Amino acid sequence: MGRLAHWALGEDGLSLYVIPRGDYLPGERVKVTVRFADGAAPASASFWLVGHAAKGTRKVEVFRQPRPPDVLKRERDEAQAEARQCQEDKARLLAEREEPGGLMGAAWLEGAGVVAFKQLFFLTEQPANALRLDKARSYSYTPTGETHPASLAVWLRLLNPGAEPWTMAGAVLEDSTGEEVALTVRQEAPIAASGAGAVLVGTEGAPEQLDCPCTLKLWEAAGPRTVTLGNVTFPDAPKAAP
One Pfam family from the UniProt entry (predicted)? Predict the structure, then answer.
């Protein structure tokens, strides 16, 4: 990495002054790990120093708030549960051979294209929504051949605080210009009263065809109860390997 010219340890910070070696290349990465002595979790933090031909950062501030081990364990368990759910979703979709292609079917999971996904943490909910949002993910699919079209999808886990089950009948995606796109909808079972359930909505097209952030609107089959979610975005469609 280079020569450590000076370092200083304070009560709440550590300063390092490094003189790069002469053959340090632009883009070269060096990992630096700092270990904390107070016994709290997390016990360490790692940083990457990245070489640049012209730019340098004189000061980087990182603030650490010790967190109880039980909180970290809960977050780890939730992440593992989310991964298991994704695997179950994959297995279920692979079994549904009669479904159409693209993200609303199963072929994309078998290497027929390239899929990107993102967690949607900052969706906005309308106070009048019939259901409450629990989790959300968006997907974009880029085909490697001509069999299936490029497509987008949104997966939602919703909570039903009402006294009646909720069954989705339709959905529409509205981009920031007011353009609306009708979506194909899938729901395995009604979302029970005081229960939770998942829905999947999608359409053909690539992310660049929409001016997002977008608004997603869902409505039920037999009543006026609707769900409107704002700030929906999609991952950039990845390029398939040549």
Answer: DUF2381
Taking the C-alpha atoms of residue 233 and residue 152, their distance in angstroms, rounded to an integer, is: 10
Rg (CA), the chain: 24
CA distance 173 to 46: 40
CB proximity list for 164: less than 8 A, separation 6 or greater: 193, 223
The CATH number of the domain covering residues in 100-232: 2.60.40
Residue-by-residue pLDDT tens, the chain, 242 positions: 455 555 666 666 666 666 666 666 666 777 778 777 777 777 787 777 776 655 666 666 666 676 777 877 888 888 888 777 776 766 665 554 444 455 565 444 444 556 777 888 889 999 999 999 999 988 887 776 655 677 888 999 999 999 999 999 999 999 888 888 888 888 888 999 999 999 989 888 776 778 889 999 999 977 788 999 999 998 875 554 44
Backbone angles phi, psi at 157, to 5 degrees: -110, 120
Dihedral sign, Cα of residue 86, residue 87, residue 93, residue 96: negative
3-class secondary-structure state, position 161: coil
Nearest to 174 by CA among 141, 214, 117, 114: 214
| Tokens describing residue 57 | 């950062």
The closest alpha carbon to 108, from 237, 242, 218, belongs to 237
CA 58 to chain centre: 32
